[in-house]
Specification:
alpha+beta; six-stranded mixed β-sheet; nine-stranded mixed β-sheet; 17 strands; 8 helices; 353 residues; 27% strand
Amino acid sequence: MDFPTLEPWDHDREFPKFRAPKIIGEFSINGERKVEMNRSQLQLFRPAAGRVHFNLQRGFSTRIPKEWTSEGLDSVLTWILHNRQKFTENERFNLSTDFVCFRGLLRLLLNTPYEQRDPWIIRITRWRDTIFLLQEETEEEKKKKMNMTDRDKKFTYWGYKFEQYMSLATEGGDKEEPLNEKEEFCCMFRTKIDDISIIYGAEMDGYKAKDKASVDRHLDPSKFVEFKTSRIIETDRQDRNWRKFKLIKWWAQSFLVGIEEIQCGWRNDSGIVSEVERIRVKDIPKMGLDWKANVSANFLLQFLTFLKKKIRSNSLEKVYRVRYQPGTGFSLAEEEENTSFLPSWFTDNFSPV
């Protein structure tokens, strides 16, 4: 079996069966990047539609920046280990899923049929009949992070600041204490695309509830809201680029976790948001340009099916990597070092609780 073709028209058929993503757990990552099995970092959505004046530059100089170092699958594996009773049957651990990864990797794959610029690398290992996937930084990405300009750092911060403005507990972004970019709230999801089952973790933004006390015991994916910022569109070219390149990523990111609504903050070059617009996720494919959601979904299914049939060895000592290079295609090879990215604290500690 070969890699799926990259020609979009080869995947332009009926949308595959895609089971609604179900939240099976959640965790917080605190300001020291430690995983906590609680909802301490859950932010509540603060509606602010229409005309506003949000200064995204505010507090930039006192921020606590996120360190761009790879943490592997550690947070997801920590959650699984903490909840191993969910996956233990007859005193044997079994995740009962084909794949484990982050939502970002699935979004990357959904975008691949239309990706003509950026290469990517995915590391793969199969253990106890589950394939674990981890995106690895390319040399281009490493250089970009090492050489981040003040402008790059500013744009990153603006995204976090907009989230703060849109969150109830942070008083609309007016809090004086430094914004900590390291904090996250994440949910664990389970879904199925055709006969391929997946467990994945995803960072989530705002949740619809009047206060923490009224938050659902079991979180509802449709009550989460995704926050995005984008430069005010002033030309036809800007509009075309937004519809062609940005909307496919917005759709994929939200679709994968069952989010129905995006709150978009339209900003100028100085980081002033003057308007917040509600965008329904189900409307995005009709708004997009030169891409189709069914093509992306069918490619994802074919790619995961290929890996499931190709990677058969259940061994921590076998690690593979898939490389994608626009214009060239895919390559799959076993790593020479075969250094597992599943840490021993995870693999050695699966026993019934």
